[in-house]
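ok, trying the design again with the full structure, not the truncated one.
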């Protein structure tokens, strides 16, 4: 067991206003975003039939610590692992352990690092062995929904514009957007204002301004949007047991668009 990372929650608490970060701050976010992306790239070849989610968690923790990053989830609100591993009908916050991955599973790995106080938060889908066409379609639609949402990130647009295009794309595919979890402001605080909804209407919500940093992390279900949290207090599953997928990036608003801090150096963000 590793020690809980020291987080200065006295100095950096959640604010109600949306913070604006400067160029030096963006450099910090870039470094944190790169490390989380490299960790998610590193793990790809290990996500195969026979491996346990606990082994994947160990590999990512070691990799992150070796490169000077702190695992932000370790010790966060009593969470005892480095990453979340959400398999099949698990929507998010699946806890790594003895579960052995098997051919045909789909799994989301969600990792957050802290480097020099800055947070990088990203998650991707991984296909275990050969997956069926329905699972593949779910992963594709979730990835496309995230990237369409990020195309809306530019000064003058609103958070509602992001949610609107995500919801439209998902529902056009006859899938559903989870409402019970959302993206979040991020910087020196892990989960800051605003709540970034993955559904909504054009023009609603706060206006995007250069310097804002947040995550977009849609969760998409093949069935109904409803979720429940299991008795472990973390694992969120679809109520109807349908498959669920999620993709997450940490981004910043620039003068004319978006910078994706957690972009994959190896080009592996979208699974094949
Ligand atoms: N990484 C998750 C997010 O996207 C948060 C996980 S918190 C944990 O916001 F404690 F469950 F790890
Ligand atoms: Co995350
Ligand atoms: Co997040």
């Amino acid at each position: 067991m590793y020690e809980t990372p020291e987080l200065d929650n006295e100095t950096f608490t959640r604010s109600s206003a949306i913070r604006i970060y400067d160029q030096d701050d963006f450099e910090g976010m870039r470094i944190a975003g790169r490390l989380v992306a490299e960790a998610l790239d590193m793990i790809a070849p290990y996500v195969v039939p026979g491996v346990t989610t606990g082994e994947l968690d160990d590999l990512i923790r070691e990799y992150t610590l070796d490169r000077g990053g702190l695992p932000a989830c370790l010790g966060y609100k009593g969470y005892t692992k480095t990453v979340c591993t959400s398999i099949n009908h698990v929507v998010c916050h699946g806890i790594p352990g003895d579960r052995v991955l098997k051919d045909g599973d789909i799994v989301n790995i969600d990792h957050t690092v802290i480097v020099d106080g800055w947070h990088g938060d990203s998650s991707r889908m991984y296909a275990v062995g050969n997956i069926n066409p329905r699972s593949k379609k779910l992963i594709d639609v979730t990835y496309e929904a995230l990237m369409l949402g990020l195309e809306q990130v530019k000064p003058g647009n609103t958070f509602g514009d992001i949610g609107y295009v995500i919801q439209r794309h998902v529902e056009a595919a006859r899938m559903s957007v989870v409402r019970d979890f959302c993206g979040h402001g991020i910087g020196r605080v892990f989960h800051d204002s605003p709540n970034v909804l993955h559904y909504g209407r054009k023009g609603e919500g706060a206006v995007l301004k250069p310097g804002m940093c947040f995550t977009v992390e849609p969760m998409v279900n093949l069935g109904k949007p409803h979720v429940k949290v299991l008795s472990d207090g973390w694992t969120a599953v679809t109520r109807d047991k349908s498959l669920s997928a999620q993709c997450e990036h940490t981004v910043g608003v620039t003068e004319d668009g978006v910078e994706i801090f957690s972009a994959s150096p190896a080009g592996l963000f979208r699974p094949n």
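Keeping the full-length input from now on. The CA atoms of residues 15 and 103 lie 44 Å apart.
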